[in-house]
Specification:
Elements: E1 2-3, H1 10-21, H2 26-49, E2 57-64, E3 72-80, E4 83-90, E5 94-97, E6 102-105, E7 109-112, H3 114-131, E8 137-144, E9 149-152, E10 160-161, H4 166-175, H5 181-192, E11 227-229, E12 233-236, E13 242-244, H6 245-259, H7 267-273, H8 280-292
Parallel strand pairs: 1-2, 4-8, 5-9, 8-10
Antiparallel strand pairs: 2-3, 3-4, 5-6, 6-7, 11-12, 12-13
Length: about 290
């Protein structure tokens, strides 16, 4: 069973919108690429976890706020019997050299050793579970999912899972499955009581404002502005995707809300946001349908 299906992080949603509607700096483009690669790595892990047997419970993308301590982030949890497996997922590619504090990517790029973050998350999870009255065993791993990742001088550490080890790791988990669906369901319900929504890392997102962003309705599939509009439908010139124009307007309104969450919605502002390519009546209809959701 898979709970809390992974969704695209709001920071990535905003950065992808900005990439379409303005020109990003080299630094901001690097940040966007990093977010995209991280999300792709998490989805790759999810595809492997989805093949686990019925006795496994998978919980994705948790930001938990205990009553007695600070919030902490978990990429994925797998519950099997009385053991919780915690995974810190990394989608690094290329050749790295291991160091206890930093990983060095040749020739001169460094990143913090993910084992440090993993150990911190593991400790916080163990304390949190004790607060909830659970006596579950916790095992934690840093998972490197990219098939072209190499880690030189890596210690023989059971908490590190390299790409070539993932198949055997998940096969081992499948052998440990137990049909404890009811207790697992209660465990998930309890965790979800402490789940909070993530917010964008504002300090990493470039400054932007309404007037400087490109206006228009974008394709819901590829993000292009090059749409051929018919009476009720549209077709994307770039990818040939087809859908109702009403759906595209709804998507454009939601994008505006994501970029400007504190701004009040109105027909006038959305008419401008759509670059006046949608009639005010259509925009009113879309806004009314959003209000009914």
């Amino acid at each position: 069973m898979i709970y809390n299906k992974r969704s695209k992080p709001i920071s990535l949603v905003i950065m992808e919108s900005l990439a379409r509607r303005t020109t990003l700096s080299k630094k901001d483009t690097h940040y966007l690429n990093s977010l995209q690669k991280g999300f792709e790595g998490e989805l790759a892990f999810d595809r492997m976890a989805a093949k686990l047997g019925a006795g496994c419970t998978v919980i994705n993308d948790l930001l938990l706020q205990p009553k007695m301590s600070n919030a902490f982030q978990i990429d994925s949890l797998v519950l099997i019997g009385q053991t919780v497996y915690l995974y810190e997922i990394k989608n690094y590619s290329g050749e790295y050299c291991y160091g206890p504090e930093m990983l060095l990517k040749k020739p001169d790029f460094e990143v913090s050793n993910p084992l440090i973050q993993m150990q911190s998350s593991k400790n916080k999870l163990k304390i949190f579970l004790r607060e909830l009255g659970y006596t579950l065993k916790v095992k934690a791993y840093v998972v490197y999912v990219h098939p072209e990742f190499t880690l030189f001088h890596a210690p023989e550490n059971e908490a590190i899972l390299l790409p070539t080890q993932l198949k055997s790791h998940f096969a081992k988990l499948n052998k440990e499955t137990e049909l404890l669906a009811e207790s697992a369901h209660r465990f998930v319900e309890t965790l979800m009581l402490y789940k909070i929504e993530s917010t964008p890392f504002v300090e990493d997102i470039p400054k932007y404002d309404f007037n400087t962003l490109k206006k228009g309705v974008r394709c819901e599939s590829c993000g292009s502005f090059d749409l051929v509009n018919y009476r009720q439908n549209y077709q994307c010139y770039d990818c040939s995707y087809k859908n109702t124009f009403h759906s595209a307007i709804l998507n454009t309104i939601k994008e505006y809300q994501q970029l400007f969450p504190d701004s009040k919605l109105s027909t006038r502002i959305i008419y401008r946001w759509c670059n006046e390519t949608a009639s005010k009546n259509r925009i009113k209809t879309a806004l009314n349908s959003l209000c009914r959701q």
